[in-house]
Specification:
- The chain has about 325 residues and is an alpha/beta fold.
- Helix content is about 35%, strand content about 15%.
- The strands form two sheets. The protein has a seven-stranded parallel beta sheet with strand order 8-7-6-9-10-11-12.
- β10, α11 and β11 (about 250-255) form a beta-alpha-beta unit.
- α1 (about 10-20) packs parallel to α12 (about 285-305) and α9 runs parallel beside α10 (about 215-220).
- It starts with a strand and ends in a 10-residue tail after the last helix.
Length: about 325
Amino acid sequence: MTKVLAVGQYSDIDLKALNADFGAPPLEDLARIADLPESDRAQVTALAYKGHHALDGAVMDLLPGLKLIANFGVGYDAINIADASARGITVTNTPNVLNDDVADLAVALLVMEQRKLTASEQWMRDGRWPTEGAYPLARKMSGRKVGVLGMGRIGREIADRLAAFKCEIHYQSRSRKDAPDGWTYHADPVALAGAVDDLVIAVVGGPETVGFVSAEVIEALGPDGIIVNIARGTVIDEPALLDALESGRLRGAGLDVFLNEPDIDPRFLALPNVTVLPHVGSATAETRAAMGDLQRQNIHAHLQGQALVTPVN
């Protein structure tokens, strides 16, 4: 057994790299760790993890020599950081390399839903253009007031792109940011939603943000609003969101993340005013390669006794 164990649904390229660099045996999911012989588990000091299933102290205790959990992804809400810290385990993630892809997708979702691009394409593919005429008018994207909920690295990239669409930028974050003149800070999500036309969610996942976009926030946005979520499904009160979409109290949504992925609530698929994507925010060949490379950089640093590249605790 090697010092490095890889758990998750990795691409063939990443699996080959993990094997070439560390001889890391791959496991499909965390439950498989318990099946390994105790002597093999005792040798593992680094865990390369890619997944959304809970990685808590009970799992960590199966690897008594574990000192590093190198997460594939910027979001690490599946990993219990308190449990890791209590056991002297450092967690790393892969930030920054995916900012552009996720920000691009957030803006694309907003444009798709404003201009009804998926529905109008289907209108054409169904042969309705020559028989029924032009597709009904959509809404203008440029110039709307857009709120960015969470002005971290990705939130800032989203806001910069929306500014290029001549949008009026509002934001909410834990504190005011060094933002361009004209960008408006709001102290809480309800105030932000009440001041804008559309809302883009870019906060981190985890216990602190569960239900952060509440029924009150959705109500404050109003019936002309669109919500875009590229953060985590846990951030939105999904039943409240679905009720608002079905009743017309919210005009639309563009969603890349959901509760209980990939088994999402079927109500979403029945709605004509929602653009849905299967969690593809960072899903480009270039970015996934960069994420895998950064994950492996952290493991190399650990094995060589060097400072970790992107620690989170």
